[in-house]
Design goal:
It comes from Rhizobium loti. With 185 residues, this protein is an all-alpha fold. The protein has 7 helices and no strands.
Length: 185
């Protein structure tokens, strides 16, 4: 009975690998945008980073709703919610100062990293689970980097660190998508 359920879930996920790819591409694009922003003022970078994080969170939550049968569903929903709420907070508070924004971004990536590692542990019986672990560890490293490097310099902005973390997360989801595509249901 358990084997049949596992096979049904595997077949369903195999057929929906494209949703993971779309999420990965969205996160990677968000990362590129976030890395490209340091040339802009702190205000603009904060506003755009808030929008980028919010959009990434929305896409992540919508994508996970498309694959509810996936064992990482709830963790993906939680991670998306953290990104959405964090992005909204950053967007609506761009004038609070660079220190506060940096700490808020560090907090968002701390929670996102913890949830991403928890997601990896939840789906560790699936091929490619380690990509989620790597993504979570990079988010935790981004959080620590932001918290330890205050105040930041023009070369080393929250947008750059956040962008790198989003790029790695995007790569992780693309790798998972391609693993699901190659897997036999």
């Amino acid at each position: 009975m358990g084997g049949t359920d596992h096979q049904r879930r595997a077949a369903s996920l195999h057929s929906k690998w494209g949703w993971f790819l779309v999420l990965g591409l969205t996160l990677a694009l968000a990362g590129v945008l976030a890395v490209a922003l340091p040339a802009v003022s702190t205000f603009a970078a904060s506003v755009v980073l808030g929008i980028v994080l919010s959009l990434a969170g929305i896409v992540k939550m919508v994508q996970s709703l498309r694959v509810k049968e996936w064992s990482g569903f709830i963790w993906q929903e939680l991670t998306g919610a953290v990104e959405l709420v964090g992005g909204i907070l950053i967007y609506f508070n761009p004038f609070k100062g660079a220190l506060a924004i940096t700490l808020l971004i560090a907090l968002v990536f701390l929670v996102q990293g913890i949830l991403q590692v928890a997601l990896a542990l939840r789906v560790r019986d699936q091929d490619g689970w380690q990509w989620f672990a790597i993504s979570g560890l990079v988010a935790l490293a981004a959080s620590a980097t932001l918290a330890l490097k205050l105040p930041f310099t023009s070369i080393y902005t929250p947008g750059t660190v956040a962008g790198i973390s989003l790029l790695v997360a995007g790569g992780a989801y693309m790798a998972i998508a391609l693993t699901m595509r190659r897997a036999r249901p």
